[in-house]
Structure formats: structure tokens, C-alpha cells
Amino acid sequence: IVCGAPASGKTTYVKNNMTLGDLVIDLDAIRCAIGFVNGKTPVDNLLPVVKEIRDHLYGMITDGKINAPTCWIIAGLPKASDRKALANKLNAKIVYMDVSEEECIARAATDPDRDDKALQAEIITDYFSTMYEDRGIKQNRGNVAARNMAAIFKNIDKKSGAICPAFIMLVLLKSLYRRRNFYPIPRRKSK
Hints:
By secondary structure, the chain is an alpha/beta fold. Helices cover about 50% and strands about 10% of the residues.
């Protein structure tokens, strides 16, 4: 099981370590196969079908019906208990891609296969929020948003200006607005 945050290098790790005939189970690849969409573009209406296909393949592994040198599972799994449960279920080893939130956002911002950069930043932020919560680490969402903005600024393509300030603000506002603990600053009453 190769797990970690979005844009942490899970797929690259598997591609660099797999051999001919290995089985790879990845939600993005399944989504791509059944919907002819970029696997990094979430298509919510297909998610139940994608998960059912994945779970069926997991069942085939546990039943010993897969004849492959290695079965690779690519999954996020921000909670340690979920990683451990899946590893126990499939009698698998865990490879955790330990990459910082800043680096993941930076990679996603420059990845041409990730269409909606704001959504990708939000998904990555959600992953790390869940992971930190699971580890008992309290996070100030304002600090997270500031870190994410810094990561994006570090990855502006100087030649083409691929990431503009308006995009950065969109990422931050979208991320903060969806947080339950975010309350806009009330306007002061004019005298």
C-alpha cells in the first residue's frame, strides 16, 4: 500500500518500482478508465462505482484470485488506523510518502494533469487537516492558509506567470470559506 497526500508522489513511486504483470489499484486510474476523464479530476457521480470496483479488487486479493507478482494499492489514507486496517485486511506492507503539505501544494500547482488547481489545494489541505487531527495536532486554519499561499507563490512560473495572484486568493478564500471554524470578520458600523 503506497499512501500519502495528493501530489506526494504515490503514483510515481509505483511506476518506478512495479514490474510487468503487477496489479495497480488506484481510484484515479479507475475513474479514468470508466469515465474517460483525467483521473485527477474528481467526478462525484462516478465515485460510488469507482469505490465498488476498488472494493471488488480488494476482495479478489483477499480471496487469492489475483495472479500478479505484486499488487500495488495507491491510496491517500490520512488516518493511521485506516492504513493499518487496510494493510491487515490485504496482508500488505505500507509505504508512506512523507511529503510536506507545502511541497504537495507546490507540486499540484505545477502538475499539468491537475486541472482545477484551487480544488487540488483544497483537497491537499483537507488531507493534512485530517492527518493532523488524527495525530492530535491542533491546527490554526489561518496558518495553514498562509503556508499554502507561500507554497503557491514559490511555484509561480517566472517565464509564463502561470499562477496569478487572483488564483491564489481564490484558493485561500475557497479553502477558508468551507471551514466550519472560519467566520468572516464583521464589518464595523459606521458612525
